[in-house]
C-alpha cells in the first residue's frame, strides 16, 4: 500500500528568508556602529563582516558595494531620526511649535555623534547631494505639507497653496543642512539655523 507523505515546501523557504533577513540585519547593525564611530572612509568591508560575525562573501551577497551598505544604513538612521522628531513634536502646544521643535531636534541630532557622522559628515560625500536630497525628502519631505495643511486648518497661518510654502520651508532646512555639513563647527551652525527657522515659521503665525 502506497503511503503519501505531504511535504511543506514553503517552510524551508520561510526559514531561508528568515536567515537572509537575520544576516542582513546583523550586517547593517555592525555597519551602522562602524560608520557612526569611525566614518565611512576608515571602515572596510572586512571589518563589517567581522563585526557582524559573517563571512565577507555574505556581506557582498547582500550588498554589492560599501556604498550600498552605507545607503541602507543612511535610510535606517534617517527613519529612526524621524521617529525621534515625531516624539519631540508631539509634546508641543500646536503644529507650528511642533515644526520648530522637530527642526531643532534635527539639527541637534545631526550636529554630533554617530547620527551626525552618518547624516551630515559622510552622507553627502558618499551618496552625492542629489541622492542625499532624494532620501532626505522621502523621510522628512512628506511631513511638512501635512503639518502646514494642519496649521492652516487650525487657523494658525493664513490659507494659501500648501505645496509652494512646503517646498520653500523644506528647501530652507535642506540648504541649511548642506551648509552645516561644510562647517567645522556643525553644532554651532545647526543652532544658528534652527533659530533662524523658528523666526521664519513664527513669522507665518496669524496674530491672535
TrEMBL record:
Q: PROSITE patterns from the entry?
A: HTH_TETR_1, HTH_TETR_2
Keyword hit for Transcription:
yes
UniProt cross-references to Pfam families, sorted A to Z: TetR_C_41, TetR_N
Provide the alphabetized UniProt keywords: DNA-binding, Transcription, Transcription regulation
Q: Which superkingdom?
A: Bacteria
Per its UniProt record, what InterPro entries does this chain match?
DNA-bd_HTH_TetR-type_CS, Homeodomain-like_sf, HTH-type_TetR-like_transc_reg, HTH_TetR, Rv0078-like_C
Q: What is the protein name for this chain?
A: TetR family transcriptional regulator
Give the source species.
Answer: Bradyrhizobium canariense
Amino acid at each position: 500500500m502506497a503511503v503519501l507523505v505531504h511535504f511543506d515546501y514553503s517552510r524551508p523557504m520561510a526559514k531561508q528568508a528568515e536567515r537572509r533577513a537575520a544576516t542582513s540585519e546583523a550586517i547593517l547593525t555592525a555597519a551602522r556602529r562602524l560608520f557612526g564611530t569611525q566614518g565611512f572612509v576608515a571602515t572596510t568591508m572586512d571589518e563589517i563582516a567581522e563585526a557582524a560575525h559573517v563571512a565577507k562573501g555574505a556581506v557582498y551577497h547582500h550588498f554589492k558595494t560599501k556604498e550600498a551598505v552605507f545607503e541602507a544604513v543612511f535610510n535606517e538612521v534617517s527613519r529612526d531620526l524621524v521617529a525621534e522628531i515625531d516624539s519631540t513634536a508631539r509634546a508641543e502646544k500646536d503644529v507650528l511649535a511642533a515644526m520648530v521643535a522637530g527642526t531643532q531636534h534635527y539639527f541637534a541630532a545631526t550636529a554630533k555623534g554617530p547620527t551626525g557622522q552618518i547624516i551630515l559628515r559622510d552622507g553627502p560625500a558618499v551618496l552625492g547631494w542629489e541622492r542625499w536630497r532624494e532620501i532626505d525628502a522621502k523621510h522628512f519631505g512628506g511631513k511638512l505639507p501635512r503639518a502646514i495643511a494642519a496649521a492652516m486648518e487650525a487657523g494658525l497661518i493664513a490659507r494659501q497653496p500648501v505645496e509652494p510654502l512646503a517646498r520653500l520651508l523644506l528647501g530652507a532646512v535642506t540648504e541649511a543642512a548642506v551648509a552645516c555639513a561644510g562647517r567645522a563647527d556643525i553644532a554651532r551652525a545647526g543652532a544658528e539655523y534652527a533659530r533662524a527657522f523658528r523666526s521664519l515659521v513664527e513669522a507665518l503665525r496669524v496674530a491672535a
